[in-house]
Amino acid sequence: METSENKVDEVENAGSAQPVENEVMGGTDFFMMEVRLAADKMSATISIDRIEGLKGEICAEILTAKLNKAGVVHGIDKDLLAKVSDSWNRNPRYVETPPIAKGTYPEPGKEGLLKMAVKHLSIGKEINKVLGKKYFGEITMLAPKLQRVDQGTVIARREGTIPDVPGQNVLGEFFGKKQDEEVTASGIKEKNNVYISKNVYTAAKTGIVYIEREEPAVLPLEFDGFIDIQTAPDMMDAQLVIIPAGEGGKMPSEEGVRALIDSYNIIYGLDEKAISGAIARFTDGSITAQEVVEIARGLPAITGDDGYVEFTFNTESSMTPNLNEDGSVDYKNLNLITSVSEGDTLAILHPPAKGTPGRDILGRVRPAFDGKKSFLPVGTNTQISRTDHSLLVALVDGIVRYNGSNISIAEGHYINGDVDYSTGNVKYERSVCVKGDVRSGFDVDCGGDLQIHGIIEDCNLKIGGSLLSRGGFVGNGEGLIIAKGDVNLGFIKNQNVICEGSVNIAKESMNSNITAKKIQIHGNTLSVAGGILAATDSIIVRTAGNISGIRSVLQIIPPLPLTEEYNKTETANKELQEKLKKVNQQMNTLPPKARLDKELMRKFRDAIAVVQQQITALEERLRKLHIEMNNYDEAFMRIDRCAFPGTIFKFGQRNMVLTEMLNGVKSLRLINGEIRVI
């Protein structure tokens, strides 16, 4: 520990502070003394020097008097003064002391232990749930942790409190004492709805108690129950909001509830049972948490059904064959082409229904809208009946068709028998209906739909619309159907179909090649065996292949328009490459004299640049087409019953050969470049 003697020995090395006084003693005084204060006035030092030619002794009392005269009155180290005096008397020379006086810093008080006298909340998340609430009934989920406190209730006491101790600098000035909070005229502090007097905390309002920053606080609450009415913006329903009473609180009377309902002018759709039940439950205390009860509901207006058109003929061009009781399917009762006679009814117009008005809870009528009118789809060779304006009738004999907006009747070609030597090849710009078969070696070329009641043998059919053959397509592989619409066949064997729409086959496909957007074959025990089925969107069959392992290919291919565009673009690119080669050859074989012709050479270079730009554009288009053609994200195949070993599944260049039996309903998709069975 550092002693006063040590300090005296170090006076020569002590730092100086702000001078306070420099007094040269007169008369019998024989020394000079200077007092220096620290900037914060928390310490003081002195320096002492002799007066030349004078002698004498000093003492602690003399030095203390000099300090007091300079204003230093607190924290003087009298022992150090005595040692300084003794040292100087033994050897009178210049002395500069360490701090001869030191101030004292403030000491904060210590709060005593807080002892709560009532139930209260102290967990932050629970406190957050109650802050901002007005009624005790809104926080009943925390009721076991709470109790009602009224004004004047002692809610807590703090015991063993130690007050603050202020600081004092060497000049004797006090500082650092806590400023008292505002108090009432009686000297009682009030904070957070709590009176604080002599460490006793008393509720200033009725409510519940919680702890905020280690101090009790009161949240004012209404303990009486509360009811209110909430109505929908459209005044079509009303709800009774019930907040139950808390400790010592009361609920509104039945008369009060009725008066509240009346104040909202609610007169229609009142649910008396719900109202009486709610009153009974909050009266006997059954409602212990906030509850909402619907007490009135209006009658919504009902819009009338729209009018609609009923067709008397089949309007679909692609047809799913009828499902028989044994699971088989056929086209026997379907018609792609419907022939009508003059005066036949084509469509029946059903009028819209009237709307039913409603009523809101205030008793006001809610108007209703009638259904929208529909209109008969009048088209070529049709008219609205003069005797019944709800009927659309045919003006001529012919083939009727609905295109999505109009019904029209076109002159059709009807063949009451086979297409053979008796008819020759058939070429007709509209629809054709064949009552019998189309025999081998005879062709049909029609601009509309084609319906054949019998079978199709080895022949060429070119169809501008859709095809329905109730029989099938059979032969030795020399037949070809090309259709812009859909193709619906009973079965197909050893033949070829190219279709821009969908192909539906009621029974089986044997050793046949089919290309379409979608293919579905409904044969139960045998669907497809042999041949190639190629579709751009989907292939759905019940069975694929057979027990003998016949090679059957099911393939997802790029859309035909993309393939056609790719082939045309590739051909154009090759032609331009050849053209570029020829231009380069011409330029490179020019005689030396011609090569000196700057204008000629410029034309050659410009021509080469143009061709190169065209080639670049075509190659970019080929790149994009290649990406589109190999995007099979939406395409799939589905086997509804089984697939036999030997069946080949392909997605573009990816293929999978089935080596084991595939049973049950299975889907195949191309996922991350691999064919997956799902």
Notes on the structure:
It is a single chain. With 678 residues, this protein is an alpha/beta fold. It contains nine helices and 50 strands. The strands form ten sheets. The chain has a 22-stranded mixed beta sheet that branches. Strands 1, 2, 3, 4 and 5 form a five-stranded antiparallel beta sheet that branches. Helix 2 (60-69) packs across helix 3.
Summarize the structure.
This protein is α/β, with parallel strands linked by helices. Helix content is 18%, strand content 33%.
Shape estimate = elongated
Radius of gyration: 54 Å
In DSSP terms (H or I, runs of 4 or more residues), the helix count works out at: 9
How many strands appear in the DSSP assignment? 50
Main beta-sheet annotation:
22 strands, mixed
What tags apply to this protein structure?
five-stranded antiparallel sheet, 9 helices, elongated, 678 residues, alpha/beta, disordered N terminus, 18% helix, single chain
Question: What is this structure's SSE topology?
Answer:
Blueprint: H1 4-9, E1 18-24, E2 31-37, E3 43-50, H2 60-69, H3 78-90, E4 95-96, E5 101-102, E6 113-116, H4 124-130, E7 154-159, E8 167-168, E9 174-175, E10 189-191, E11 194-197, E12 200-203, E13 207-212, E14 215-220, E15 226-231, E16 237-243, H5 254-263, H6 272-283, E17 291-297, E18 308-311, E19 322-323, E20 329-330, E21 338-340, E22 345-350, E23 358-359, E24 365-366, E25 382-384, E26 391-394, E27 398-402, E28 407-410, E29 413-415, E30 426-428, E31 432-434, E32 444-446, E33 450-452, E34 460-463, E35 467-469, E36 473-474, E37 480-483, E38 487-489, E39 492-493, E40 496-499, E41 502-505, E42 509-521, E43 528-544, E44 552-556, H7 560-588, H8 592-595, H9 598-629, E45 636-643, E46 647-651, E47 654-657, E48 662-663, E49 666-671, E50 674-677
Parallel strand pairs: 29-31, 30-32, 31-33, 32-34, 33-35, 34-37, 35-38, 36-39, 37-40, 38-41, 39-42, 40-42, 41-42, 42-43, 43-44, 43-45, 44-46
Antiparallel strand pairs: 1-2, 2-3, 3-4, 3-5, 6-7, 7-12, 8-9, 10-11, 11-12, 13-14, 15-16, 16-17, 18-22, 19-20, 21-27, 22-26, 23-24, 25-26, 27-28, 45-48, 45-49, 46-47, 49-50
